[in-house]
Fold this sequence. Notes:
Elements: H1 5-12, H2 25-29, H3 33-44, H4 47-66, H5 74-77, H6 85-120, H7 124-140, H8 142-152, H9 154-170, H10 172-178, H11 180-194, H12 197-208, H13 214-243, H14 246-253, H15 256-263, E1 266-269, E2 272-275, E3 294-297, E4 300-303, H16 304-313, H17 316-326, E5 332-333, E6 340-341, H18 379-383, H19 386-416, H20 425-451, H21 456-478, H22 487-501, H23 508-515, H24 520-549, H25 552-573
Antiparallel strand pairs: 1-2, 3-4, 5-6
Helix pairs in contact: 3-4, 3-16, 4-16, 6-9, 6-12, 6-13, 6-14, 6-15, 6-19, 7-11, 7-24, 8-9, 8-12, 8-24, 9-11, 9-12, 9-14, 10-11, 12-13, 12-24, 13-14, 13-20, 19-23, 19-24, 19-25, 20-22, 21-22, 21-25
Amino acid sequence: MAPSRSSLDARRSPASTPRTSWPSPAVLLGKSAAGAKACYTQLTGLGRGGLQRAHAHQHDSNDEEADGAAALDPATALRPPPKDTSRWELLVALAAISVAICYADRSNISTAILPMSQQFGWEQSWQGLILSMFFLGYLATQLLGGALADRYGGKTVLTAGVAAWSLCTILTPPTAYLGIPALIAMRIAMGLGEGVAFPAIHSIIACSVPQDRRSTAVGVVTAASYAGTAVAFGLAPTIIEDLGWQWVFYIFGASAVLWLPFWLPQSVEGGTASRGGGSGSGGDGSGGGAKPFTIRGLFGTADIEEEARVALTASPEQRGAASAARSGGGDVAAAADGRRLRPQRSLPDDAASEAGTDWSDGVAVGFQVQQGAAEGVGFLALMKQREVWAICVAQYTGSWGFYGLLNWLPSFFEDHYQVAIGDLGSFTLMPYVVQGSVGLATGVIADKLLTRGWPVKRVRRVLQTVGMLGPAACMLVAASPLTDGDPGAASAWITVGLGLNALTLGAVSVSHLDIAPKHAGVIFGAGNMSATVAGLLAVPLTGVVLQLTGSWSMVFGITAAHYVVGAALFAWWVGDAPLQQDG
C-alpha cells in the first residue's frame, strides 16, 4: 500500500513540521475496553457504524498479513477509510458550475456597458466607476463569507449568494434607467452576493476533497470562472444585437434556476460530500457538521478518531509499528513501493520555522516550536505570517491584470482596434477559453508533480513565476506597435498571456490549503479580499488613465509591473507546511 499524502509531505519538508507529542492511547481510551469503546464513540460520532467499519478494516489487514504482505507501512494503520470519490467530484462539479454562473453574471456588463454608455452618455471615467462598484460589495463579504462557511458550512452560504447575485443581475436594467446612483447601488449589492462564493467553495474543498486531489479540485473550480467569462463574452454581443442590451442581464440572471435543482439535494456531512439529508453526526446538510479533532505529527495531520480506531482494532504488530512511527524511531519500509519513510527531525529552539514566521514587529523572527496545537487561533495571528502575506500580495498583483482585462477587454478592442460590437466575441472569447483549458490541466499537473516527489514549495514557486511573468510580457506586446494594428494578433498575445496565467491555479490558488487547512475559508477570503481591492482600484483608474491619456500601452504597462512585483514576492514568502497558528 502506497504511503499517504501526508507522509509524502512529511518527507519533503520534515524540518518545517512542528514536532508534536501524540496522545497516549491510554489517555484517550481509558484503561478498560468499555471505556475505550465509549471514548471512541464520543470522539468520532460514528457510533456502531464506525466501529463496524473499523473492525472490517482490521479483517482486511489480517487477510493481507495471512497472504504474506510486505513489511507494514505505519501510515497504513493511520489511513482513514477511503472516501467515495464520485460524491466529492459531483460536489466540485456543481460548485464549478456556480462559479461559471458567477463570472458570467459579473462579466456581461463589460460588453453591455458599450451600448449602455451610448444610450445614457457615460464617459470612460463614469464607466470605470460603475464597473468598479461591484468590487466594493465584493470586498465587504470576503472575510465574512469565509468565516460563515467555515462555521456553518459552505452549502448554505453558497446557495444564498447565488440567489442574491442572480436577482441583482435581473434587476440591473431597471435600475440603469433610474440613474447612475441606483445602478451603483445595485452593483454593490451584486458584489455582496458574489463575495461569498469562493470562500464558501474553498471551505467545502478543504473538508470534502482528499488532500492529493485538492489542486485538481481548485483548478476545476477556478477554471470555471474563465469558462463563465468566455460564455459571457461570446454570447453577450449576439444577444445585444438581436434582443438589446437589457436581455443580457435577464438571460444570464435566470441561469441559476437551472442549477439550483441539482445543487439543493447535495450536502456535506462530517467532511464528506453526500446526497440527501443523511445521518451524519452533527451535519446540517451544509457542511456544518462536527469535524474530527486533528493533530500534526510525523505524517502531517492525523485524526484522534483514527488513533482510537487503531487502538481498538489493530493487531499488536500494527500498534507497535504505528507507535514507532509516531515517535520517529527509525526508518520503516513502505510495503507498497519499497520507499523509506524518514523520521521527523526536531527543530532547534532558535531556528526560524518555514512553517510560520511572526511579523508582529515588521521583521522575520524565529519562534520556538510549541508542543500541541493552539486552540482558538484568531485571524490576526494568521495575518502576522509571511506565508499568508505571500497569498495576499500575489492575489492583489495578479488580479490587477485579471480584473482590469475582465472589465475593459471589450472596450480595448472597440477603442484601440475599432472592432464592431457584433464582432467582439471573435477577439474576447478565445483568451478565456484557453485560460480555462490550461487551468483544468494545471491542477492535475501540480498534483502529479507533488506525487512524483517535487517539493511543495518548488511546485508553487515555478507555476506562480511562469504564470505572472509570462502574461506581463504578452500584455506589453498586445498594445504595442508590434501587432501592426491587427486585432487578431493582439488577441493571440492576450490569449497566450492568459493561458500562462492559468498556471497560478496550481500555486497561489491552493497555497492556503498548504498552510492553513483548518482555516482555509478565512485565509482564502483574505487573499480574495486583496484581489478585490485590486479590482476596486484597477478598474476606475484604468478609466481615468484612458480619459486623460487615451493610452492603452500605459494601461498594460502598469499591469505588467504588478505581475513582476507579485511574482518576486510570492517566490520569496510562499509556505509549504501547515502553520502552527492554524491550530
